[in-house]
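Quick board copy: two proteins, each given as sequence then tokens.
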Amino acid sequence: MTVPAFIAAVLVLLLTPGPTNTLLAVGGASAGFRRSLPLIVAEASGYLLTITPLATFAGPYLADHPLAASAIKLCSAMWVLLLAAKLWTAPSAGVPASLVTFRQVFMTTVLNPKALIFGLVLVPHGTFGTVLPWLGLFLLMVVSAGCVWLSAGAAMIYRKRAEFPPLLSRVAAGAMLLFSASLAGSSLGLL
């Protein structure tokens, strides 16, 4: 894969709505851009933890063991469902800055099916030394896309005069529920 093709494919996936991006937007909306910046570190760390072993040695194993890949997707679906429930039951007013935590973004990213696509399809496979430059480029795009999602969330709160709109957590919870159902259906072979 050429560098421009890699950049285009990665950016398309990183900018596509999903569980991690939903959490980043909610984090930006509930705590503002600056206070939510550590969430980008959580996202980058989560992707690295998943992608590095996939690109260096686990890809062939998962290709030969589709049941293991399905189990990973099902675990992802359960995690996203738990996050949807937490967002749905968030207080309706005065939402604390901790509505979205570093741990939640990290775990969601580790379990995010996009990480599997990055690690199994987009990042070239090989030794750690071979993969490292691609991971560096990937991280630059994660930071850029993460800033877009945090900014989008922060812009929502700015428009509402620094009051977190209760409907936003319900909409985010609904989106997370759809992501969870899609993951579960995919892991069980229903979709």
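And the next:
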Amino acid sequence: MKKTFLVAAWAAAWACGAHAQNSVTLYGLIDAGLAFNSNAGGAKSYQAGSGDVTGSHWGIKGREDLGGGTAAIFELENGFSVMNGTMRQGGRLFGFQSWVGLTSTRYGTLTFGRQYDSVVDYLAPLSFTGVHPGGNNLSAHPYDNDNLNNSFRVNNAVKFASADYHGIQFGTLYGFSNEAGGFDDNRVYSFGAQYQTGPLVFAAGYLQANNGGSSNTGGAITLTERTFIAAQQRVYGAGVNWTAGNARLGFVWTRTQLDGLDTINGANSLGLTQNGQGASFSNYEVNAAYHFTPAFSVTGEYTFTQGALSTSSGDHHPSWHEVSVQADYFLSKRTDVYTQVSWQHISADGSGLTADVSGQSVASGDQQTVVGVGLRHRF
């Protein structure tokens, strides 16, 4: 009896210890609200929406301690519409993320699955549109050309993220094409880094997607998620954030180059054929935030984008001005209400492009204003 009691006590103690070192967590964010669009194809629009600012999502993440500072980890994250209950990201069960890997306190983290690229991981958090999780959907740069709002994730991806070495973090990602005889047919690779010293944060990143216009539907990027169908897309940029007390000021620059561009066919498709030529976008963003109280803050950004398009009708140099301002008030640690105004103006330079605030119906002219109010709850 005494031996049985000791064995039972040891087993209970081991189970408690194992439970303390392992975990599975359910989490999520729900964003529901109303949006006014001043120019939705030439008409005013009033709509109820899900994730107008932050994409509604829920997820499961887990961790098992393997000893010696190493652990097995996973994360499965679903994007959905709270207004109609449907799944986003092409109907995927885990369209936001789905990956498994190993992490070490000494070396870093190695993961496998559907993941964010290095530009999203390191540079996007310094921009107004790239605030994680879910981004600020009304503030993406034109057509989310630099993917800072993570319009697409990378499938078949192997990613490494370093540990923090005295404020320096870096990482890289490779998304396989998974096509026999077509190693670079719809593949992606990227790398990035971030350095924090006191109130300053610096970041830079690079992404390249090859042959995105191919018929390889099992490759690194799902074609229906892409704004651009092009033979090659390259994105690179850098940014800095400075924090002083309750204020934060930031600057982000990105450049996107598209070779062999066929169409711009995102959610707000213009059906614009580029005659197999190219295009580029240079984005210059200034953003700021101020916390008046722990519960109330105002954030905003101004972005100037200079474009270059080579189309069947000639060469064009459209430019965009975007301004977004958001006021946010937390009712509790997990629930907040917000209002955001986003305005865009385009000088189309004969390209046929019109104003197009991210996630909204495309305008019929050169200006568009979107006003959103909403409620967000985290769990």
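Board note added afterward: The mean pLDDT is 89.
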